[in-house]
Amino acid sequence: MRSQVEGSQAVARAVTLCRPQVIAAYPISPQTHIVESLSDRVRTGELAGCEYLMVESEFGAMSACIGASGAGARAYTATSSQGLLFMAEALFNASGLGLPVVMTVANRAIGAPINIWNDHSDAMAMRDSGWIQLYAESNQEAVDLHVQAFRLAESLSVPVMVCMDGFVLTHAFEEVDLPTQEQVDAFLPPLVPRQLLDPDEPVTIGAMVGPEAFAEVKYLMHVKQMAALDEIPVIAREFEAAFGRSSGGLLRPYRLEDAETVVVALGSVLGTIQDVVDAMRDDGVSVGALGIGCFRPWPVGEVREALQNANRVVVVEKAFAVGAGGIVGQNVRDATRRQPVEVYDVVAGLGGRPITRASLRALLDDVLGGRVDPGRLHFMDLDLELVQRELERSRHGERPGPHAENMLRDLGTVASGAYE
Amino acid sequence: MPYQEIKLYQTGTFVAGNRLLEPEQRSVQARTGRSNSITSGHRACRGCGEALGARYVLDAAMRATGGKVVAVNSTGCLEVFSTPYPESSWQLPWLHSLFGNGPAVAAGVAAALRARGRDDIRVVGQAGDGGTVDIGFGTLSGMFERNDDVLFVCYDNEGYMNTGVQRSGATPPAAITANTKALGQTPGNAFGQGKSVPLIAMAHEIPYVATATVAELRDLEYKVEKAMTFRGARYLHVFVPCPLGWGADSADTVRLARLSKETGLFPVFEAEAGEVTEVSRIRRQVPVEEYLRPQRRYAHLFGDHPRPDIVARLQARADRNIARFGLLPEGDE
């Protein structure tokens, strides 16, 4: 059924249709509307047979999901930003134990400085946590990915996070085609747990493992993630057959066939990038885009194949490894290392800064004009003069004070208006 | 099951031996049908109070529920000594996740069982004092305030024994640990620190809170069985001496546990909905020195430079407990 609905409400409805049995959640912007809505749905009975735990922290949320999953329940949570990092220890535990928990991550920046707006620093910080990471491009895809995520998690007994851009998607009202309960029930069978805390057949879960088998247990996690590279396209095809629309999968190529320059990105910014690709194509420039739908496991072979004809790859990413460079860029470089291609790492959209068509167009013009050094990390729309003035202040006086506050004072504005 | 001959005798304490009791009143451990939930062969130290306590707690919980228990364990000695890969001592379903999340994991298990219509299966969470009073405290308080249907058991040996005997929020004042050595003006752990999680649990007004020691094991079983008659959050704080961490003789575990109670240092009581309902009275009050002397962690109080002032402060703590909980025999107060 098509309806005009907020992204969070659409996701809450999709999760409801997946019949989770335990939800444990702690509020954090911009995830809040999802978990508020799920609380409503449990209370009204729309989501029947579900226990909703309002836990004391995100660490508690993921821990409760671990217990619930171990006891044979379909378990779900949602978080953002600091909350995801507060869960970090439990994330590695859930994946190490092979528990099929599904989580929505409403992507948001990580402080300090504290910032509630969208970027991918949170999910990227947890990229090696052993969770599968799927990134939604639109609210429709966010809905569809949740239905697929439960199926994927339970088929391989691995945890899956569905990443959707905070505010940009979670708080956006868009037309979304919400599936029916019958459709979802037919696509997603009830959970058959691979391990179960059952008094009739007692098992020990979470034993101490020393050097004699630790590597093998970890290797098995890797094997499962590699299996997910096969499973994700299969689930996406079955989803398309059942629901009549294409969603999910590993990669989303856009006008890639003969593209000499390809922009690689994740999440909602792909729509803007596609607009820029269209405009440049109209101008006769050979440009395409490659959306990464699945970042973990990293589809290295598929990315290599998708980029085999490109001369230049511009990776636009909403996070970076401080002191090193691009994160997605490093992975793309790994995928294309035997190909004659330049990979440009471009950091954009940090802390909610808009990634505009004009900025993307200027970036690509600069890349095509040879004005961007592929050997260096590039920051889109960076106010370098502001940084240099702060560096200058730092050179004077014994106590130059906190950078963020100094720079805000210098700028004279905050997002909501004039400073002071 | 083959018949197991059990020798019953007077314990030499004030505890009545099983032979004086009707079969139905005998302890769970005295029955051939006990579940042996944590079975022999584990790697606990000789004289480990925690292994003893866990054995009694879980077998009592199993008996109280007809064998329908799921155990959740926080990281710590109990987890490590019971599951050296590929072996496990656990003969009941058992889940270990992390150090600080046992209560939340247990809450999740309980929620799942309820969602699956299996709330005939009960959940027991277990942790040492570090996992309970320190790193797991946030999740424990959350479990309490939500009144999740979990019995959470703290085996309190007053320090981080698994990591090499460091101070925890349950380490008593003056005790030497690896990071509170007998150095400086105030040797051992500081006075004026630490917390009583049983009292904090009571402040949550959960259905049932109790303390116990491994000296009175029938009392421990009774409290577990009683806890299983309640639904909602329940908390059991068990005093378990640690021969390794305390520098005590392995044969003294039960004696030290008894002395902790008989000095008044560890008050043994029960509380329901935030109110104390029963206290286990001291049978023969002993000065704290009798409890302190057998432990090397207090040796600095009695050596070449004895510190009677510090011993007096510890006695004052015991006296305060005695007054506060009314621990002396009736008529002695």
UniProtKB/TrEMBL annotation, chain A:
Coiled coil: none
Entry superkingdom: Bacteria
Keywords assigned: Oxidoreductase
Span of domain Pyruvate flavodoxin/ferredoxin oxidoreductase pyrimidine binding: 14-223
Membrane-spanning segments: none
Classification via Pfam families: PFOR_II (PF17147), POR_N (PF01855)
Ranges where the record places region Disordered: 393-420
UniProt biased composition (Basic and acidic residues): 393-408
Domain Pyruvate:ferredoxin oxidoreductase core per the UniProt entry, residue ranges: 259-356
Family the entry assigns: Belongs to the pyruvate:ferredoxin/flavodoxin oxidoreductase family.
Record's protein name: 2-ketoisovalerate ferredoxin oxidoreductase subunit alpha
Organism: Nocardioides flavus
Automatic annotation (TrEMBL), chain B:
InterPro entries (alphabetical): PorB-like, THDP-binding, TPP_enzyme_TPP-bd
UniProt keyword terms in alphabetical order: Oxidoreductase, Pyruvate
This protein's record includes keyword Cell inner membrane: no
Alphabetized SUPFAM superfamilies for the sequence: Thiamin diphosphate-binding fold (THDP-binding)
Organism whose genome encodes this protein: Nocardioides flavus (ex Wang et al. 2016)
Domain named Thiamine pyrophosphate enzyme TPP-binding: residues: 75-238
Name this polypeptide is given: Pyruvate synthase subunit beta
PANTHER family assigned: PYRUVATE SYNTHASE SUBUNIT PORB
